TrEMBL record:
Ranges for domain DUF4142: 72-203
Domain of life: Bacteria
Xref: Pfam families: DUF4142
Protein name: DUF4142 domain-containing protein
Length: 223
């Protein structure tokens, strides 16, 4: 009959193995906690640096910076006053014009100057530069002339007045865009340039732009 008594040496070896396994588990757990803490600190450091990096990427163009010159202020005023007479002119085109091309040009005036006027008012507030609430006396006179015209007479007068006006301001836009140091004025000049270019295009599409109108614009360019 065989004996079933346990071997003391086997029991001792098993105990040592269990103890070693527990010790290894403890070491692994400690290393894991250390690695987690190190990675968390690195993530926090990167996150802390992100706003500064984003701000640097945005650069000065993201806000208002740079000197505002007398020309910048004059330009802001001209953009505001242009909208104050050209939007009424655009509305009149819808009821007084005989040509669909003129009505289309009038809609471009309404849409373009509505956006420019909002931008000009926002920039005026941001820069603390006052702008007028009325068009010039001359511009108001142009609106009165348009109110009293109808049909083909309106069409020609509309194109004569608007193409000359846009051509003259186009020259000023280029000067401002090329020289301004202020980021808001630069943005406004860029948008105004695109809008005025569009308006000249639709006015020219009417086929009513005369040489006399272009000569009038040319006469205002400094020699």
């Amino acid at each position: 009959m065989k004996s079933h008594a346990r071997n003391p040496r086997s029991t001792s070896n098993r105990g040592r193995l269990i103890a070693a396994a527990l010790a290894l588990t403890t070491v692994i757990a400690a290393v894991s906690v250390w690695l987690w803490q190190r990675n968390s600190s690195a993530d926090e450091s990167v996150s802390a640096d992100m706003p500064a990096a984003n701000a640097a990427a945005a650069g000065p163009e993201g806000g208002n910076s740079g000197e505002v010159t007398a020309l910048d202020k004059t330009f802001l005023t001209k953009v505001r006053q242009a909208g104050l007479w050209e939007m009424p002119a655009g509305r009149l085109a819808q009821t007084h014009a005989s040509s669909e091309a003129i009505k289309r040009a009038g809609m471009h005036l309404l849409e373009g100057h509505s956006k420019l006027d909002q931008l000009a008012r926002e920039d005026s507030e941001a820069l603390s530069v006052p702008i007028p609430d009325q068009a010039t006396a001359e511009q108001q006179g142009w609106v009165s002339q348009l109110k009293n015209a109808r049909g083909k007479a309106f069409d020609q007068l509309f194109v004569d007045l608007l193409r000359a006006s846009h051509g003259k301001i186009f020259i000023t836009i280029g000067e401002v865009r090329a020289t301004t140091k202020n980021t808001l004025i630069r943005r406004l000049a860029t948008q105004t340039n695109n809008t005025v270019q569009d308006h000249m295009d639709v006015l020219e599409d009417t086929g009513l732009v005369s040489d006399a109108t272009l000569d009038d614009v040319a006469s205002t360019i400094p020699k």
